[in-house]
Amino acid sequence: MRKEKEAEEKINEDSKKVEKWASKEILLNQKLDECAEKIASLGALPQVDGVYSKMSLKSLFKELEKANQHLKKYNHVNKKALDQFLSFSEQKEKLYKRKDELDVGDQKIRELMKTLEMQKVEAIQFTFKQVAQNFTKVFKKLVPQGAGYLILKTKDSEDEKDDKEVANSDAFTGIGIRVSFTGVDAEMREMNQLSGGQKSLVALALIFAIQKCDPAPFYLFDEIDQALDAQHRKAVADMIHELSDQAQFITTTFRPELLENAHKFYGVRFRNKVSHIDCVTKEQAKDFVEDDNTHA
Q1: What are the beta bridge partners of residue 177?
Q2: CA 51 – CA 59 distance, rounded (Å)
Q3: Domain residues for 237?
Q4: Does any domain span residue 147?
Q5: Local confidence pLDDT in tens for the 296 residues of the chain
Q6: How far is it, in rounded angstroms, from Cα 24 to Cα 5?
Q7: Does 154 share its domain with 229?
Q8: CATH number at residue 286
């Protein structure tokens, strides 16, 4: 019985040792796995010099300690610099690519702006030529013995003709008018050199010239013939009659010329501080303006 008891105690003691060794084995295997992961994370390891394989473990630890002491002076180095460099390099490539795309877009926009600017200049010059040609023709009808021209002014010269080649619409500064009431070869005059009646006639010629290019549905003229002589009043009346097929003209006048070709006549009376408008006949309208001229 005693021997059996001793044997049982021996078995229990051996079991405890086995459990202890098994636990230690598990810990060592865990450390082994951890070291294997660390080695794998280092990537491809450099080839080890054969000298170190012949050194003792104690000597290797001394060499490792020397290496660690040597590396301490590089502690200030940013260990994430490589990762940051790779990340920033990728961002830089994306930004360069985006810049190239924006450069292409910018070039296309500039080309479009250039095209639109050319079309704008062409439209200005084309419209001006039409109005200028019509102005010359209309002025000749209003003043048969005279001549009139429109001038397209630019920054380079304030006295350029309509055939001036301009690359940018900003170069245009305005439109000038030159007319002569005494003959084609006579001295041409600017607007500031004309009398009131002459200015009115030039303004009407310009309106009629624009009307021929871009007709409006109707026009309202308030005593446009007030400063004109009889000859020019008749010329204006004839021009309005000529254009009346394309637009409606409403005019107020105290002169008989505009009444000749009108279709409707209205008289305006002022009684008791109130204006009254009545439809009248052509004869009544003539009598009114003749009486007014007589009293004047």
Answers
A1: 150
A2: 11
A3: 215-296
A4: yes
A5: 677 777 777 788 878 888 888 888 888 888 888 888 877 776 666 676 777 777 788 887 888 888 888 877 777 777 788 888 888 999 999 999 999 999 999 999 999 999 999 998 888 889 999 999 999 999 999 988 888 899 888 876 544 444 456 667 788 888 888 888 887 666 788 888 888 888 899 999 999 999 888 888 889 999 888 888 889 899 999 999 988 888 899 999 888 888 888 889 998 888 888 888 889 888 888 888 876 665 45
A6: 29
A7: no
A8: 3.40.50.300
